[in-house]
């Protein structure tokens, strides 16, 4: 099975932009869609990006997703950072055997 | 509105069994796949199992295969997870989550805590 590796933490000031990477260990990142989830402390996760770059209704366009085949990675970009964006973020993908994998998680701190 | 409410968590000894349930409301349950995802204390998310609406096909993480069984009762809008031969490392909050298609999860429950300890 494959792994999805994320940076342990990122931090930035309000109003700035942060980008979180998610690198797939084996198999092409482009072959299976990537999702991103946000989890605030002591709360259930919520979906912020699905199918690489689509936002569910209600998610602001400050959140965007992309993939880069050259680095075999996906990215979540949060622009116009706000204090309420402070949370843990997880990427997720799957393989053709219906096995699902979550990334290692990234803690976003708004300074 | 979509609601997913887990129940059945608690403290159980290693080697024993436990059944979790997830009551779904606010949508046509039979039209959706459903996942179980868990999170050990202070750790990240770990996918556990999925059951699809077409043929009720099921798939499991290697860590639980052969010990856990996911099932659904579309007449009662209920998802279940039967956990046998529980281990200390199965201690986690267990979330049920809705899957409108194979690629994504769109709604999550609030979770139920399972503690495996002697």
Q: Strand-residue fraction of chain A? A: over 45%
The structure class of chain A reads mainly beta
- Total beta strand runs of chain A: 10
Put simply, the count of helices of chain A is: 0
Report low-confidence residues of chain A grouped into runs of 5 or more: none
Rough shape of chain A? Answer: globular
Gap from first CA to last CA of chain B: 40 Å
Shape of chain B: globular
Mean pLDDT of chain B: 94
C-alpha-based Rg of chain A, rounded? 13 Å
Average pLDDT taken over every residue of chain A: 95
Q: Would you report the number of β strands of chain B?
A: 11
The amount of helix of chain B comes to under 10%
* Rg over CA atoms of chain B: 13 Å
Summary of the model, kept short:
Chain A has no helices and ten strands. Chain A is mainly beta and 111 residues long. In chain A, a hairpin with a 6-residue loop joins strand 4 and strand 5.
Topology diagram in text:
The complex is a heterodimer of chains A (111) and B (118).
Chain A lengths: L3 E2 L3 E4 L5 E7 L10 E5 L6 E4 L13 E6 L4 E6 L8 E8 L5 E3 L3 E5 L1
Parallel strand pairs in A: 2-10
Antiparallel strand pairs in A: 1-3, 3-7, 4-5, 4-8, 6-7, 8-9, 8-10
Chain B lengths: L2 E5 L2 E3 L5 E8 L7 E7 L5 E7 L6 E3 L7 E6 L4 E6 L8 E8 L7 E2 L3 E5 L2
Parallel strand pairs in B: 2-11
Antiparallel strand pairs in B: 1-3, 3-8, 4-5, 4-9, 5-6, 7-8, 9-10, 9-11
Please tell me about this protein's structure.
Chain A has 111 residues and is an all-beta fold. Chain A is 0% helix and 45% strand. Chain A is built from no helices and ten strands. Chain A has strands spanning 4-5, 9-12, 18-24, 35-39, 46-49, 63-68, 73-78, 87-94, 100-102, 106-110. In chain A, strands 2, 4, 5, 8, 9 and 10 form a six-stranded mixed β-sheet that branches. Chain A has a four-stranded antiparallel β-sheet with strand order 1-3-7-6, with no helix packed on it. In chain A, a hairpin with a 4-residue loop joins strand 6 and strand 7. By secondary structure, chain B is mostly beta strands. Helices cover 0% and strands 51% of the residues of chain B. Chain B has no helices and eleven strands. In chain B, the strands form two sheets. In chain B, strands 2, 4, 5, 6, 9, 10 and 11 form a seven-stranded mixed β-sheet that branches. Chain B is globular. In chain B, 39% of the residues are buried.
